[in-house]
């Protein structure tokens, strides 16, 4: 069974590596391929036998191991290939691929490659020294992959997520789940939902990460046909979102899952059998609060924004409270891990501007109001420049309103 498991995940690596960009498949096939390590017969024997719970982390890492095509290349040529990937010269910058070529060049007797390997290892050590608890530099590096994906630069995103997980060895293994997302959506790689599910289940059941369940929930809330083999089920989606923080076996709960579940309680929803659930604002409030508390390192800024709207406007069973609204709006944007492209964050800056302009829940302060309006303008502009940002849809409205508010206060 273990041999079948490894074989299937090796095939994931083949898919991701060879097809990292639909416009550069030939180059990728020439430059890199996965370590096959097992026969096609094993893979074909039982394609659906993969069980994420039987995998170890080392087996997953091994399944994504890169090899390089060295045939006919001199040590100097291999070194130049490594340098090309290290610098991102004509290809996506990819440190793991660079290291693979440098090591091949060392084996071919190239002395310059020895120093290059040492340099990359030093860069890796520096990165992780500046990344306490998986935050700091490694989080910023991971975020560049998210931004690349939002901009539609999927080849670049793949390389960053790969490096995050397997080169720098992010202790939170954020890149693993993001590689699953690329497979799920078929963005930059051939769509393979079954393999994406394997990664999500590995995250949830082996690594004990709640975001694996959240990713499974997102699969099931999509319309049938979006993801081959997955039939839409809101009941399953909500079940997975709840498991993302309620499963007792988790080592780390997710903070997005409770917000996604709360969104359904906020609006009401239909069960798979057609029966309807009316909005339950108190249950939604509970989910948003859990999401806003986070996992000890960061939290869900969008959930804080939602709580701000609850307390600003009031809901059935939830009293209006401007001070609490201001508190949650401020928390929504208080952590550097909360990014301007997250859903609701540009609106949060805009709302805080109005709170300070009018003294709602805070002391009136026009300078603070102007500062928040300017930040709202910048956040909206950042969203408008990206094609896949969560806050993109409402960005133009925020931009126009913030610009008008600044013009009005400047008069």
From TrEMBL:
Highest taxon of the lineage: Bacteria
Residues making up the signal peptide according to the UniProt record: 1-28
Organism: Murimonas intestini
InterPro entries membership: Mitotic_Regulator, Sel1-like, TPR-like_helical_dom_sf
Key words, A-Z: Signal
Name of the protein: TPR repeat protein
Lineage of source species: Bacteria, Bacillati, Bacillota, Clostridia, Lachnospirales
